[in-house]
């Protein structure tokens, strides 16, 4: 039996459920290796103005995480738009180098991890404006001053920054949607009127439109430029791995679970393995201290795991492990159809070698005997039940066998107990015989001496009812006279009816 609790964490904080962006799906970047490149196009550089906007739902609240970047510090640095410590940061270069960057950043921390925000930068010939959630925000130069960015021959990269040595870092982790680049400075009205709905693609000055409604994963995922322009460049994946990047809905991403798979922990299997699906986690930490996708356990209890699915996105799953019924069973061996003069010998055993414990055998007349082997003279017909409890007092197993005692040659038997419950064991009162019976008479009386049944047929039975009405539990009297193989027999006494 297992019980689970699923929590969603980011860094050391709990993830809040994401607000919906305005479209169905979003792009997921893992913050470790994923990014996209769009071939250089002058329409992606500053012409008479530049606007970059997107919906983002970041996982990280630390560092500087790139949204887009068109730069290389060898005279090719144009601009970057990023999230730095929950602030929106726009950086550009007037000369193409990185030694004197111009960094314009929102004053306040406005971008909350785990929540969708619309962000935009508008760079006009005279000023720069930063928008978060459709509102122009207070911003300041933390270095440099206003100017115009150069025209760069570098590709436009999504979700990464290129270093001087052509290596990459500052990866973006999280969801991104509706990325748009305009070769003009949009007004606040333009941004607010368009941010909540998809575009048609033929809007004036629209140079790049990625609606993130594409299909595929990893290297097979191309983000098609939906801007209706001549020779549009599409975004191609770089640094793909472990099934990322991919397209997902925000709802699916928010409810994504990492279930723990558990082997059964049983009395005969005192160790088990807990495991996770192998989907390329960034890190794994079990409550046992293990850091791989599996961990071993030897006792019941609560076990939890924290996994980092993408950079800064942590999921935890807890599972309650209890002892499960084992697949062990017991069986009974022995001859079960006997003559009344024979000895009943039954032997009980476990189907799993090496499991020790205590056996108890219960008889049809409510008697019992300890041990796995039963040797019994004068046995009666009925169900014999063996119960096994292992030495750890963990498993309790049962098995049953129906024993039929028949009259030996020239012998006969009369039941002392009947249980007319339809299980075909001791269901009837009758004469059991082996031979030839003649001149048979049977009379049955209730406890008040009233005759309730009679028969002159030795094969006619009494099923414990009168006129189809079942009789109550109690003692009944009988008289029986017959000749067996020519020898006169007279019997009488009482028998019990038990329901």
UniProtKB/TrEMBL annotation:
One of its GO terms (molecular function) is hydrolase activity, hydrolyzing O-glycosyl compounds. InterPro entries: ConA-like_dom_sf, LamG-like, T9SS_type_B. It comes from the Bacteria. Pfam families: CHU_C (PF13585), Laminin_G_3 (PF13385). The lineage of its organism: Bacteria, Pseudomonadati, Bacteroidota, Saprospiria, Saprospirales. Residues 48-189 form the LamG-like jellyroll fold domain. GO terms for biological process: carbohydrate metabolic process. Residues 1-21 form the signal peptide. Keywords: Disulfide bond, Signal. SMART domains: LamGL (SM00560). This is T9SS type B sorting domain-containing protein.
